[in-house]
Amino acid sequence: MNSSVSKTKQPTHHIPKYFGIALAVGFILLTISVVISFLFGSKVVGIDGIIDGLFHPSVDSYDANIIRKRIPRTVFSLLCGVALGVSGALMQSVTRNPLADPSILGVNTGAALFVVIGIAFFNISSANQYIWIALVGAAITTVIVFGIGSMGRNGATPIKLVLAGTAISAALSSFVTAILIPRSHTMDQFRFWQVGSVGSGSWDSVLTFIPFLVVGMLIAILTAPALNAMALGDEAATSLGVKTGFLRFISSFGAVLLCGAATALAGPIGFIGLLSTHLMRLVLGSDLRFVIPMSALSGAILLTLSDVVGRLIGSPGELEVGVVTAFIGAPLLITLAIRLKVSSI
């Protein structure tokens, strides 16, 4: 990694006051969310079923088989939550906007447009096909946004990136609509993907997702110190040796990998990156060395619990997790924005 990102001299940062408590509570909630994800669904499974499904592969009971089907779904949900939480932390730091999420650079819209093109013109239908074409769309959109946002004086400033991302998202959304309207079959297939669901999570999905998650997480961890410096302002960061343009690009690239891969496999799931990172900033402050791992943890918890809620509400079927996160995330975020002072990043 470029020395301006990983070896920049930074002001001393102390461990946040509540980090230990937040970490302990987070792991407790994570354990609870995993257990109830195993327990609840169209059929409630007992503890004996969980034990047999996890540790006794020779047992062929109905409950044990249900647990074996729920394990990859739960793992997939956890990984998607991690990716969305970290991508939210990166985008909020890149734009210095505490209420930003990856969609601010058109990542979701670019991925959606290319998925629509793939369905309509190339008959794609599998997760492996979705992930590559969605990542290409997200990456191209990010490059375009950075190109537009870099025009004029001062290069790619946060405000210019936000404006460019908003404009590009609106334009791409119109293209999505134009492709879908005359193609009913494409609209039906896209509608199912667009809702956002982890119900199709399988071991194949997990294995497809892991490489993108690992690379994105490495980028997030390595850029965290320089992003802390950039929070002081571009001039201060530059004086500390940070190449702000390169930092914004590489951090956004990490967010594209994380959010783009999760979106490709599970559909666009809103509010996880926004809410998990915002909550962690309120508890821990703005030091990304701690916010990033805690956003990963809180994102995994939020998405997994939302998936369980969707299963319980929609029983004997299920309510897609994208719908649940919208219902839960929107009012909570509005409440936070009204009652709590959002500190600048």
Question: How would you describe this protein?
Answer:
- The chain has 345 residues and is mainly α.
- 74% of the residues lie in helices and 0% in strands.
- The protein is built from 14 helices and no strands.
- It has helices at 3-6, 19-39, 47-55, 62-95, 107-122, 127-149, 158-180, 184-195, 203-230, 234-239, 244-266, 272-284, 288-313, 321-339.
- It is globular.
- The model is unreliable at 6-12 (pLDDT under 50).
Topology, element by element:
Blueprint (H helix, E strand, L loop, with lengths): L2 H4 L12 H21 L7 H9 L6 H34 L11 H16 L4 H23 L8 H23 L3 H12 L7 H28 L3 H6 L4 H23 L5 H13 L3 H26 L7 H19 L6
Q: Tell me about the biggest sheet?
A: none
Spatial shape: globular
Which band does the percent of strand residues land in?
under 5%
Derived structural class? mainly alpha
Evaluate the radius of gyration: 20 Å
Count of strand segments: 0
* Secondary structure: helix percent: over 70%
